[in-house]
Amino acid sequence: MAVFSSLADKLQETFKKLTGKGRLTEADINEAMRTVRMALLEADVSYKVVKDFVARVKERSLGAEILESLTPGQQVVKIVQEELTALMGSENAGINMAPKPPTVIMMAGLQGSGKTTSVAKIANIYKKKHRRPLLVAADIYRPAAIKQLQVLGEQTGIPVFSLGDQVSPVEIAKQAVAHAKANSNDMVLIDTAGRLHIDEALMQELKDIKAAVEPNEILLVVDAMAGQDAVKVAEAFNAQLEIDGLVLTKMDGDTRGGAALSAKAVTGKPIKFVGMGEKLDAMEPFYPDRMASRILGMGDVLTLIEKAQATIDEQHAKELEQKMKSATYTLDDFLDQMGEIRKMGDMKEMLGMIPGLGKKLKDVEIDERELGKVEAIVLSMTPKERQNPGIINASRKQRIAKGSGVQVMQVNRLLKQFDEMKKLMKRFSDNGMLKGDRVHKPRGKKGKKSKGGGKTHRPGMNNMLSRFFGQ
What we know:
Layout: H1 5-19, H2 26-42, H3 47-63, H4 72-87, E1 103-109, H5 115-127, E2 133-137, H6 145-156, E3 160-161, H7 169-182, E4 187-191, H8 200-213, E5 217-223, H9 228-241, E6 245-249, H10 260-267, E7 271-275, E8 283-285, H11 288-295, H12 301-311, H13 314-325, H14 331-343, H15 347-352, H16 357-360, H17 368-379, H18 383-387, H19 394-404, H20 408-430, E9 434-435, E10 438-439, H21 461-468
Parallel strand pairs: 1-4, 1-5, 2-3, 2-4, 5-6, 6-7
Antiparallel strand pairs: 7-8, 9-10
């Protein structure tokens, strides 16, 4: 599910009406602002935040000079995007790294907010950046909390420091920092205890840990689906601990998730990370401008590029590009490429980051299991068949279909689309349109753009998969 999908749908529908008009009246602005106000309130953004937000947008929309390059409706959308960005913090606020390692991060939050998982996810982000994080199991009260962190440590390949559940959390934290210094761990992430509610014992323990290890960062993990309770929790923790930032979990949910938009405005503390799913790589640094673009249906190309860069091996990508140019791209290469794309995360979420596609994909269900079928078909082929699909006759197709648990027509469809894709790559290569990372626009005679506006075509897996799913 797309982030803030209900809110995004309502806002996008409102602004679609505005951008379709040649000129706007004050009545048009007032009507749009009424819709925006209701959409934000229904998403559980706090009343005061909504009131101030709408007032700022309305004032700017009525008083702003319309840029020559934009229609009045587009100008209003631009103002809303800027105000949404400001509401959520204006710019990305990263971790305050210690001048001398290790950087100590203390994670706090109520039980059930996703704190333990978030500790591992954030550590995993920095491990991929060649840091050496250490996870610290300082929650000695919740049954299986220590074991959960150890399992997450095994899954991410990050060491976990634990002294069991009979040593005080303060002592565990102190010894963990000493252990990190002795073992060259440059980051320490402490998983502290949570409660189902805020109480004096919880707060005092957190204060004691803070005093003992003097963390560089105190991050509060908040369940974005908790509605206004999430904001109240953030206020209470900030008053007691003076937190440095927020981690919002379950942002891939919907309905009341808009309360997250209030968190920064109410606490004055930046949102530093957002959890977008259950997988260990489903945690992102928070960029207010990118989130505003997602909400308004403008896509998020920068995050998509970063996910690709973090997932796809650059040298391997160059090798695939050369194979595309020389028409030696095989089904083995296709399988490798699909595996790398799947590592990037949910396919619908990835495609939704491309400007203009989010709305179109709203009612389209992309079943990840279908990707598994594609893999099964290719893996049911012999190495020789994957290298040269032209040898696959009727009897081979039947064997492949049986081995992959699909119908023969699905094998035929995949082979046909792969053949079309190779021909498209060959044509692009022959015309000199594949160059570097870009596919150049085709041109007709005398250097003129071809009919159809000279659209940029991108051959490859995305086109092939979209056809496979019937898009």
